[in-house]
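Predicting holo structure, iron/sulfur cluster bound.
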Amino acid sequence: MKETVLRRMKDLPSSHLLGGGTPMCAGCGGLAALHEVYDVLGEKTVFVNAAGCMTLLSTYPFTPFRGSWLYTAMASAPAGAQGVRDALDILLEQGRIDASENLEAVVLTGDGAAYGMGLSATSGAIERGLDFLYLCYDNEGYGNTGQQFSGATPHAARTATSTGFAGHAGYKKDLFAIWAAHEPAYAATVIGAEPLDLARKVERARGLTGPRLILALAPCPTGWGYDPELSVDIGKLAVQTGIWPLKEFIDGRVRHTKVPKPRRPIEEYLQLQGRFAHLFEPRRQDDLIDELQGRVDAYWQSVDE
Ligand SMILES: Cc1ncc(C[n+]2csc(CCOP(=O)(O)OP(=O)(O)O)c2C)c(N)n1
Ligand code: SF4
Ligand SMILES: [Mg+2]
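Done. Tokens:
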């Protein structure tokens, strides 16, 4: 199966994912997180990818991964991971592969699929106790098709489909909480700009069995409107302002892994991004800025730090 259905590129020079030569945007925060996750997981993986920006990494029959890659429709990646897991389990049971040839099924999906189109398939897979790792790179919109709003788009952000003076009218869904409510083996938020925190969580997830979420905020210069060289700064500011809490769910409890103290004002994060420029020009929209700051303050006041 591995050779016929899941293609792999052999004889690559390094042990990690190759990013050069792909059609990805410079400064892509999703790709940075994926690099870091892959460095921990390694080649004994099958990435089951829902349509999105990361799909452009692979050009049939090649992929920049040393492991395997399977492409699915947007809503179907968890179902694809179930098929891969089942096939591997049957091969193991029948003795056609040994334990050293076992692979980790990893869903790789954007927020459009994770927070919306694929949520039902994900919920079903968690409910069945599927043994898989689920990596969502969250660039807060349907990036590959021009950054339309998704269930992950923050309030007041401008997107291709939220162009008014107040930006997006909706509020970002809490996918981490949705996963935690399913009581999975593990769930964590991460960001590529905090690589040690990310690596520790992926390492922990790798050692567990069952449904495991790694949810990475993915600064996106193209969709968020900023210079690619600012990606790491914006990622760090997301953590330092408290707008992207780094946390994990394990053994039924949520624990914050980095508590920003003191928290920086979220203006510092917003002002760097074109999608929030209308909050500052042509006139400052204090009502919206205060609302966004108030929601972050309320979150941190509500958690048991
Ligand atoms: C059912 C379906 N609707 C629409 C599309 C077109 N499409 C391809 S990628 C994409 C955007 C996906 O957004 P997201 O999951 O957030 O990933 P990103 O593009 O941001 O990486 C869309 C809408 C599709 N492939 N399948
Ligand atoms: S649109 Fe955003 S998420 Fe997609 S490749 Fe470009 S930077 Fe990355
Ligand atoms: Mg997206």
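Strands lie at 45-50, 68-72, 104-110, 132-138, 186-191, 211-217, 246-250, 253-258.
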